[in-house]
Amino acid sequence: MVTLFLRQGENGKQVLLSFPATTPAEKADVAATVESLKSMSKTVTIQGAASEVMNLGLYLSGVDLAAEGELERINQLAERLEHMSEVDCDKFAGMLDANSISGTKDISQLTERLDDYVILPGCGSAQSIGKYLVGCGAFPVPEKLIGYINYEAVGIEFCDAHGGAPCARGYVVQRENLPRALLEDLNIDPQQKAEPELLTLYLRTTDGKERELALPVNNAKLKAVQQLGTAQIDHVQYFSPYLGDLIPTAGNPGIQDYNELAKMLGRMDAENGELLKYTSVLSAEKPETMQDALHLAQNLDCYERISGSLHDYGIKLLQKQFDLDDECIYELEGYMDFARYGQESAKCAGFVQTEFGQVRRIGQSLEQTYSDEMTL
Questions:
Q1: Which of 86, 141, 159, 355 lies 20 to 30 angstroms, CA to CA, from 181?
Q2: Going by DSSP bridges, is the β-strand pair 357-361/352-354 parallel, antiparallel, or unpaired?
Q3: Which strands sit side by side in the sheet containing 199-204, from one edge to the other?
């Protein structure tokens, strides 16, 4: 959760606002509070913030919450922070200090790059960084000369080359171009690319410990996780915030359900337009349980989505229905409203308008299947 300290104008009223606002009522209350402050002053600035990321208030200070889009970005930022583990919150604090931040847009974009950074554990100074580099072999030194090494100079040279900033757990640095020995010491495959995870489960054991599980995984790892037995799904984070809003958590879904959904999302991500089609279907069908959303993912072939504009859709229909070539379409340009024709045709064909495009159901029976194919 993020609590903002707001000020009306330069010396006006101070108000506290908490994010994320998830329900329509909460969002309406936040908007009403900001509008109330705006009625007395043109600016409603953030004076500071309290959250799991200790230095966040420093980078939010001075932001005009009344400016267009700021309210939505703050709420989205709070939602993402709420799903971060304690380690990621500490890492993110270092990432903020390591980058040039100029507003909520920069902060929000940085939340999507957590996998691009690593923490050098226990490193809070140039000297400790130098010792770590020598110790892991990233700065090779003959054993006889170790007592004569200027660790601070080694650390300073590393920081000059790679940037970074300290955090509560060590030193945060972008992992690109880091020495191979350093990555191996952190148990990171040097050949592995930092890619956004499709779906992350945050599991909590009976003793209160939290662990993360990035999906999809293969059968062996899935069975190993399921053998924990006592681990419960605390919350879920999708690579796209839209999916988190559209896929419900009702239905008491298990790890296997989410693993199957992650595999389906991976296939959609590899095919142009399939993710937009899925979000359109979710928006139109409004599944009640997570299993219903998985069922829809398994049956996307039973749906059709209009890709492109209604203008283009109208032209395609004309070409198909009346066998018109591009020259005929060119002659009709200026004499016919292609967009209106596309819109009315889509309505007659049963398409439903969603915020992700128009979609319709073309299949009668939806079959639920579980695949044995593993993506990892």
A1: 86
A2: antiparallel
A3: 210-215, 199-204, 232-238
User: Taking all residues of the chain, what is their mean pLDDT, rounded to a whole number?
Assistant: 79
pLDDT per residue as tens digits for the range 357-368: 889 998 654 444
What residues contact residue 56 under an 8 Å CB cut-off, 6+ apart?
A: 2, 49, 81, 93, 96, 107
Q: How many residues does the chain have?
A: 376
Q: Which two tokens stand for residue 107?
A: 């902060």
DSSP string for residues in 334-351? TTB-HHHHHHHHHHHTT-
Q: Label residue 235 exposed, middle or buried (CB < 10 Å: 0-12, 13-18, 19+).
A: middle
The amino acid sitting at 58 is L
pLDDT at 349: 87
pLDDT tens digits, residue range 73-83?
777 777 777 77
DSSP state of 272: T
Beta strands 210-215 and 199-204 are antiparallel
pTM more than 0.85: no
116 secondary structure, DSSP code: G
Task: Label residue 116 exposed, middle or buried (CB < 10 Å: 0-12, 13-18, 19+).
Answer: middle
SS3 194: coil
**How far apart are the C-alpha atoms of 143 and 160, rounded to whole Å?**
26
Question: Which residues are bridge partners to 105 per DSSP?
Answer: none
> What type of residue is 62?
G
